[in-house]
Amino acid sequence: MVVELWTSAFCAPCRSARRVVQRAADLVPALRAVEVDVAADVERAAAEGISGTPTVVLRDADGREVFRAAGVPTLPQLLAAVAGALPRSAVT
C-alpha cells in the first residue's frame, strides 16, 4: 500500500501533511510513503487530478485510489483509510 503526498516547494501546510504521512508510515509497516513535487512532475499531477497542495492519495496493493484528502488529513483519518484498504487477512 502506498500513500502519495503531493507537495510544492512553498507550501506551508505541506510540512504538516508530511508529518501526518510519516507518522502513519511509522505506525503501519505495510504502508510506503512517497512524496511527489507537483512542479517537478506537472504532467503526472494533472493526469492524477491534483489541483492543490498538499494532497494525500492512498492506493491499495493494486494501485487503485482508495482515499484522497485535499489539505492536511488528520492522523486518525489517514489510519482509518489505511485500515479500510488493508486486505481482510492483514486485519485479522
> What percentage of the residues does DSSP assign to strands (E)?
25-35%
Q: List the total number of helices.
A: 4
In total, the number of strands is 4
Radius of gyration using CA atoms only: 13 Å
The 3D shape can be described as globular
Helix content: 40-55%
Unreliable parts: none
Helices and strands, in order, run as EHEHEEHH
Please give the alpha-carbon distance between the first and last residues.
17 Å
> What structural class results from the helix and strand content?
alpha+beta
**Biggest β-sheet: count, sense, barrel?**
4 strands, mixed
Describe the protein in words.
The protein contains four helices and four strands; from the N terminus they run E-H-E-H-E-E-H-H. With 92 residues, the protein is of the alpha+beta class. A four-stranded mixed beta sheet has the order 2-1-3-4, with helices on one face. The chain is globular.
